Amino acid sequence: MTIASPIPVQQTLPGTRSNLAVMGVLRFSFGTMGSGKSTLALQIHHNLTHGGLRGALCSMLDRKGARVSSRLGVSAEAVVIDPSVDLRDVARNNGEPLDYLVCDEAQFYTPEQIEQLAEVVDELRLDVFAFGLLTDFRGRLFPGTARLLELADISEALQCEARCWCGDRATHNARVVDGVQVYEGALMVVDDPEAVPDIRYELRCRKHWTEGQGRPDIIL
Ligand SMILES: [Zn+2]
Prior knowledge:
alpha/beta, Wheat Germ Agglutinin (Isolectin 2), domain 1, 2 domains, 6 helices, 21% strand, elongated, disordered N terminus, binds zinc ion
């Protein structure tokens, strides 16, 4: 679309994307571990970059530091987000606003950071693609996830479903400490094979998450 104007509009406003005709979208895609969130985040980032757009791949507490890595083995450099980061600054990019943000592990963002994402969509017209878990090991919505569900233009469940050991659809992430499922503890603990005690996350259906039952041949 061409705008018949002799004066280039909006190009003089610092921190504002020039093409204001384009609406941004805040899209939240959620799923359990193993549902392909990081893989999809990497794919979208790749496609948009390849298409000439400028954006940032953001993550928090990824398994490999300042990267987003997929369990399938693909990875890319990422901007590491911690609670002190203002995502509006990331989007403004020192006066050269980005076109999009891809946010992996968005369940760990603070509610205020989710509000910043909504603001950059509305004010800078960025597209934001957020990926995250719905619930924590206690079966409660992550605070960042709750805010995303409240604010996102589009919320969608990823269709690449993971399975419980029993074969049913996995809907919950169980935290397993030294082989026993726990329902209380610090919210943010990443699984680290070197750590003591041994903390892992396992996918369970609701029934086996509720009962705290892992695969029988692992328990026995
Ligand atoms: Zn099950």
